[in-house]
Amino acid sequence: MNEQVHEDSKPVIVVVGAGPGVSGSVARRFASEGYDVALLGADQAVLDDLVPGLEALGAAVGHTVADVTDERAARDAVRRFGEHTGRIDVLHFNPSAYREKDPLTLTVDELLTDVALGVGALLTVVQAARPYLVAGSRISVTGSMAADEPWQGAASLGVQKAGVRNLVHSLDKSLQDDGIRAVSVTVCGALARDGAFTPDRVAEAIWSAVTTGEGDWLSEVPYRG
């Protein structure tokens, strides 16, 4: 693990499933607001590509490669981030599996493998982060309209997105008495390079959801562009 995040007064975001799309845009959006950034991803080269842009925004950046379906590896990575920074102000969860199989060809093992990534890994990282979350900390998840309007050609994706949204509702209820809230931002459109559904626009919606005041908090926020 490359540990560059330092203990100071700056808030910290941990981005799980860090990559070049929405998660990278989320990291940059929070870095632009003065957050230090910890990246947990599956590809070292991708993480290395993200770091210079984040540092240019003034963020101290730590990054680790881990398979988030490996519970021990994921817990250890998040715990190391927490121990190093002393705090986790935002935990953003982005992973999901896209498998082009309809429900007549998708096997149970394949479905469970995908759900382990897109839903189960959220449990792992939240439980690992919990000692470092304090009143005011937030958990955010990249949701999708596939939860309500699944495409049968990639049947497991809709199951993942419906499941992770449901889990976010439960997390929010479980943590709210401690001042910690969780939100799933449902992206009601297809990601694109231009228009309303660019990764940067989605990241802006996630920033807006995370920074919503307690009195107006919702555990699901649709982003319709």
From TrEMBL:
It comes from the Bacteria. CDD domains: SDR_c (cd05233). SUPFAM superfamilies: NAD(P)-binding Rossmann-fold domains. It holds the Pfam family adh_short. PANTHER family: OS08G0476300 PROTEIN, OXIDOREDUCTASE, SHORT CHAIN DEHYDROGENASE/REDUCTASE FAMILY (AFU_ORTHOLOGUE AFUA_5G14000). This is SDR family oxidoreductase. It comes from Nocardioides oleivorans.
